Amino acid sequence: MAKLYFRYGAMNSGKSTALLQAAFNYEERGHRVLLAKPSLDTKGDAAIVSRLGVTRDADFLLGPDDDAVRVFAEHRRRVVQETGEDVSCLLVDEAQFLHGEQVDDLLRIALLEGIPVLAYGIRTDFQTVAFPGSRRLLEVAHSLEELKTICRCGRKAIFNGRRFGDTFVFDGDQVAIDGTTVTYESLCGVCYLQESGGRLSSTPTVRPTSEGSHA
Ligand SMILES: [Zn+2]
User: Fold this and answer.
1) Can you say which residues are annotated as belonging to the binding site?
2) Tally of CB atoms within 10 A around 62
3) Could you tell me the pTM of the whole model?
4) How many domains, the chain?
5) 210 located within any domain
6) Position 190 in a domain
């Protein structure tokens, strides 16, 4: 049975590098793969960009309204027509930007079409809240694998701090693509809390005071 894999990590944990390496490994053994990414990510248009310098275009983009099963089937047919060989694997970059329904489609591709799907993405946003695609992947993927990176203090980074210039910000839209004004820094929990002044979610926390416990 083919499986849906979710390989997640903080920013700069080498997700695109790992994806391109996985594609290379398949192709080195003579297999065909398809690479996809959500069109919401405009960082490199169709390009899947590794920070190590390797870049490759996605075979197709998934728009917000696209049925991933249908779009995958179209491109699978094209590969079979062009090469006479079937696709061995679907690799999806920036999977955090998929809708939940599109993640369900990825699961259907694995289960019903028998094609393994490897999805790579960021687990949580700059407010430590799961992206919709990542939340659904955490719920339904057969296999979860964390790609690790290191905070400036040397601990494992698990969160993504958003910065305007030198200043960390903790309010704003969930999606602000890395660019000239907005940058991200992967942080461990301790450093995140230091920068956020103790905040961990988008909702201001009012701690319920349980009866009988007085500070
Ligand atoms: Zn740290």
Assistant:
1) 175-179, 184
2) 25
3) 0.89
4) 1
5) no
6) no
